[in-house]
Amino acid sequence: MSSPSIPAPSGGAPSGPLAGIRAIEAGQLLAGPFVGSRLADFGAEVIKVETPVVGDPMREWGHHRYEGHSLWWPTLARNKKSVTANLRDPRGRDLVRRLTQTADALVENFKPGTLEKWELGPKDLQKDNPRLIVVRVSGYGQTGPYSDKPGFASVGEAMGGIRHINGFPNQPPPRFGISLGDTLTAMFAFEGLMMALYWRDAGGGGKGQVVDASIVESCFSMLESTLPEYDKCGVVRQPSGTGLPNVAPSNIYETADGSYMVIAANVDPMFRRLCQAMGQPELARDERFATHVARGHHAELLDGMIGEWTRTLSKEELGAALEENGVVCGPIYSIADIVADPHFNARDMILKRSDPRFGEISVPGIAPKLSETPGDVSWLGAEKPGKDNAEVYGSLLGIGSRELGELEAGGVV
Questions:
Q1: Which of 15, 36, 102, 122 could disulfide-link 134, Cβ–Cβ 3.0 to 4.6 Å?
Q2: Domains in the chain, start-ordered, CATH in brackets?
Q3: pLDDT, tens digit, for every residue of 121-135?
Q4: Contact, 304 vs 289, CB < 8 A?
């Protein structure tokens, strides 16, 4: 890059495997900004562009608040700098255009065609910066008959097929308790950006490109063998509740104290170990259960027999018996269980950070773990939109305080 990196608010030098990468995040809500979160967690300099005064709606979203502050924002905006620009004003669009001239990537999740309307589309921006990678996140993608439709995760999950196979037979398909389609698409978009960066610098002659990530397609990509099953056998996979069709035992089983334990012993050696734990080694030789295929055919009967055994033991007793015999198992955790679990803490997945708004607060740790260039959480996002206007616009665009004041007075920043 031609421009130096702006120091983090803590004053420390950027670190992590993506240190030296600059991305302009010009999206809002969840899907686009989560791409920026992945970048920022691993050391990229992420400059988030927000609407003047009000900022990203995610500043106000979330079920619960602490002293008036959203508890979703510090996880989504962490490690990012915040500038403001009114993209409906030509002067605001010019600021973003100039920022992209210093950047490696632009991340956006506007309705397709919006950037082109503002003359901020990939062709416009790559004229001035051919190295720029434009990451575009949308409901249906940038092309195709549905591309003009607005799209949210809930609809993407529905049309992408994962909502249909979720839940229980003969019941309305429920949604997930999180915005899975948004974060899933962001992961695909981040993956695409990493590939585009590698190609640009390794064999692409320094040329940027467009990463087109669709919520519908990202959800569809997770459907495993459902497409060839339908194509060759005419089978439409249906929701299967707590287990999977013809895969047994792999389900949840109730304990004596009313908890549930996941037991996954569907491969033959694991099933034999489960039978040993149950004190019924002969089940592994029963022709109804001796093979993976046979167990699939008799899954309901087998699940009933296992459930009779698990209901005689407490969660702790069951876990100990299964682990002693090397059976894959695990309890179903709430967030309270996760926080209390020593493994999550030993892996630094429950990070404590100090912040003026929250005092000490727990935030999710970094995944995955890198041995030589680990990611980190340095700060929990800007307290107000445009907190870094003077620093970013001054360092990168040479805008002085007087000009910045005029832009602010004009509603541009």
A1: 122
A2: 22-222+349-409 (3.40.50.10540), 250-254+260-331 (3.30.1540.10)
A3: 999 999 999 999 999
A4: no
Per DSSP, the residues of 139-177 read SS-SSSTTTTS---HHHHHHHTTTTTTSS-TTSPPPPPS
Cα gap 161→237, rounded to integer Å: 10
Show which residues are catalytic: 182
- Tokens representing residue 144 in the block: 């195709």
Q: Residue holding tokens 């087109």?
A: 212
pLDDT (0 to 100) of residue 1: 41
**Would you say how long the chain is, in residues?**
413
138 bridge partner residues: 214
Cα dihedral value 248, 252, 254, 255, nearest 10: 90
The number of angstroms, rounded, from the C-alpha of 154 to the middle of its chain's C-alpha atoms is 15
pLDDT digits (tens, 9 = 90+) for 220-260: 999 999 899 999 999 999 988 888 888 889 999 999 999 99
Global confidence as pTM:
0.89
Mean pLDDT of the chain: 91
SS3 68: coil
pLDDT exceeding 70 applies to what percent of the chain?
A: 96
Q: Name the nearest CA neighbour of 111 among 195, 184, 27, 51.
A: 27
Helix 299-310 / helix 268-278 crossing angle, nearest 10 deg = 40
